[in-house]
Amino acid sequence: MATVKIEERGCRGCTLCVDLCPVEVFEVKESEPVASVVHEDRCIGCLSCHYACPSQCIEVGDFLELRPFHRIEGHEALIRRFLQAQPLADTLSEADLEEAASDVAARLLALSETVVETIGKGYRAVGRRAGAVAAEHMPEMYEEAGLESVLAAMQKRFAHAFTFDFALDGARATLTFQPCGLCSVVEGAGEKVGEAVLCHLFHDYWAGLLSAFVGGRYTCVVPVAGSVCKMELTPSN
Fold first, then answer.
1. What is the pLDDT along the chain (237 residues), one digit of tens a residue?
2. Cα separation of 214 and 150, whole Å?
């Protein structure tokens, strides 16, 4: 049976866990400003509460975690034959791509501002959590063994958007972006590359990704940022 715990000192009483839980595990009483676990035996381990909690103070344990081993990219040719239709990506013009890039940039900047307004100083934890969640939708990475193989697979996965080279020093990895895919977005907003909230979220997103793929916990520092960005990912003891 899954276990559910709330760290009351972190709870804000936002009721997101109450609103999202499909089996009504949680409750917020009028006499108390924090959520409480009232039906732990109902928990199905969907982790909706854990991912939604802005304070990250809900821990779910003793559940079976299943990974989605689908292969959309790998079956692209089969899907094309089945649908007998040209993929939309092949019909996009340069103007379409520029419009899409502008739209994505605006949404990313708005998202970063919203995260800070909602979470406050602890916003970087959202980046790491986003990386961990996104990792579950990249099943091919879990088939790689070792840090070097995982990074090589990430090079392929993020080609063009976040093209990078990497060097290893034991379990430590240095990634070099020339430049990072967010560089123009941050500069276009008049912010300094490497210091913008969007940059911080991205750095921790990658730390979350690598931590999930390798099976450890990595921390991230960025000693060089600009037209060339260097990201140092180091395993935590």
1. 789 999 888 898 888 899 888 899 999 888 888 999 999 999 988 888 988 888 889 999 988 766 554 555 666 676 677 677 777 777 888 998 899 889 999 999 999 999 999 888 889 989 999 998 888 888 777 777 789 999 999 998 888 889 999 999 999 999 999 888 899 999 999 999 999 999 999 999 999 999 999 888 899 999 999 989 999 999 986
2. 7
Neighbours of 181 (CB within 10 A): 16
Per-residue CA distances from 21 to 18, 80, 231 (Å):
6, 38, 37
H-helix segments, 36-140: 48-52, 76-83, 94-119, 124-135
Domain co-membership, 144 together with 231: yes
Q: Which two tokens stand for residue 67?
A: 């990974």
CATH number at residue 38: 3.30.70.20
Q: Are 173 and 167 within 8 A, CB to CB?
A: yes
In-domain check, residue 204? yes
